[in-house]
Amino acid sequence: MAQTLRWGCAALAALLLAGPVAAQPAGAVAAPAERATRHALVIGIGTYTDPAVPALKGVVHDLVSARRMAAAMGVPEANITVVRDEAATAERIRQEIDALGRRVNDGDRVFVYYSGHGTRWFDEAVKAEGCTEGLLATDGRVLSNVELGQRLAPLAARADKMLVFYDACFSGGVAGEPFRTRSFVRSASTPAGEQVTPKFTRVGAPEACAQPSNFRTRSLAQGLQPAQPVAQNVVHIAASRPDEVSFDSSSFGGYATVHWRDCLLGQARDLDGSGAITVDEVTRCAQARITPSLAGQPGILGQQMTIAGNANFVPAWMGAAFAPTAAPAAVNTAPARVASPAEILAEVHGQRDGSRRVVATVRQPLMKIGRDTLDLDVTPSRDGYLYVALAGSDGQSLYLLYPNALATDNRVQAGRRVSLPGTGGWEIVAAGPPGPETLLVMVSDAPRDLRGLAQAPAGPFMQTLLDGQGRARLQAVLGNGTPLAGCGQPGRPSCSDAFGAALLKVETLR
Fold first, then answer.
1. The dihedral of CA 147, 149, 150, 152: what is its sign?
2. Residues 212 and 308 in one domain
3. Rg of the Cα atoms in the chain
4. Boundary-marking domain end, from 316, 332, 359
5. Does residue 90 form part of some domain?
6. Quick one: 306 and 397 in the same domain?
7. What is the pLDDT of residues 195-249, one digit of tens each?
8. Given CA atoms 456, 458, 464, 466 in this order, what sign does their dihedral have?
9. pLDDT tens-place string over residues 58-105
10. Where are the beta strands (DSSP E) in 58-108?
11. For 27, 240, 285, 424, which has the most beta carbons within 10 A of its beta carbon?
12. What is the share, in percent, of the chain residues with pLDDT greater than 90?
């Protein structure tokens, strides 16, 4: 006899009528162990051969911060390459980017960090008053946005995710004397003797390109975008807007770097209650700290961090991933928002590798409650492991439908269609209430360790518990693979965390 799950509120009622169901304890889910599939290139330039270029005394702190950020992303120490100061010539930077490209395999993750001066110069290709951005190497040579885009493109093409963070700026727009190191006005939060320097040099830049708000710019992020084969897989974080200044502190380094680091390592909050901390949430946290730290300083109008690309990428599972949902500002305010099961699945879907296509269709998208069964056809573009999760129309329940107790072998092959439920002796009948159901269909390179989920049995299926820890564990387990012994070797599963996914909607009707 086929095992049936009637999903929605009816499924929850059936579980309650059957008596108490003990939730299976979730396995410990901490920051992922170091992964050989993760890599970082850290570039920091505080001193330049040209004495006209101001020194950045805080870069030494940025290098430490960047290494901590890389570690939080699961990058092993052996996979972190650091190029600093006099060693960071334009040619050396090119060589290190190329070397990184040779190390990165399909489905790996990459973190590229730069702290130093940015610059801008006139470019006829950008039309009238057009200016092009670039990063200044220690020898005074510039790596333009176009060149950087071309050199990073091969990495982006192979990486599951590539995060590029540049703490530099591309205009000198500080009122009065914009290019001079200055002391900050003393306050309770200002370290004694702190020196602050704009991370922009006007050396070689015409006045039109050195001033804010009077140019048409071809930005670094824009230069990188056209070369990206899959925008879903790349995120760029800039310390400031194109027409703003970013600042270097001699006491702690770049304002953007230190605050983004602290937010990544635990200060950021899960603003939407989804169970994960995204790049957008980390950056919002950092911005909330940058703004007051610069407030009240003469001639400084602020510094706004910007994101291009996949702002919903979850970069790390250290500290912040299991931080509590954002607390209300005051006792009488409404409680913090908690994401619905459908929104949680949508956020997991946002972590997919866009180059890994999963074609999934529901044979009957309009389903009669109590009568129609859910039937899926899935065709992956790569070999992997198939998982199907369902968010019910009640807005509260979330089930892992596949694999299940009656169908444990979830391996699939590239180009070969899989039909579910197939002949496994199980089926799923719509139970209501009426409304939309959301299905996440994902095919991962490496298997997921489902023991890490907070869960309760629902017949042969698994109901995921969605308290704060349950949401976090769901995101962590689905988003991170479980590398097996010998992974990456011929005939063995991949070591990567990459997965392809499709998000489907089904409507249940009376």
1. positive
2. yes
3. 25
4. 316
5. yes
6. no
7. 777 787 655 555 556 654 423 344 455 555 545 557 789 999 999 887 777 888 9
8. negative
9. 999 999 999 999 999 999 999 999 999 999 999 999 999 999 999 999
10. 80-84
11. 240
12. 53
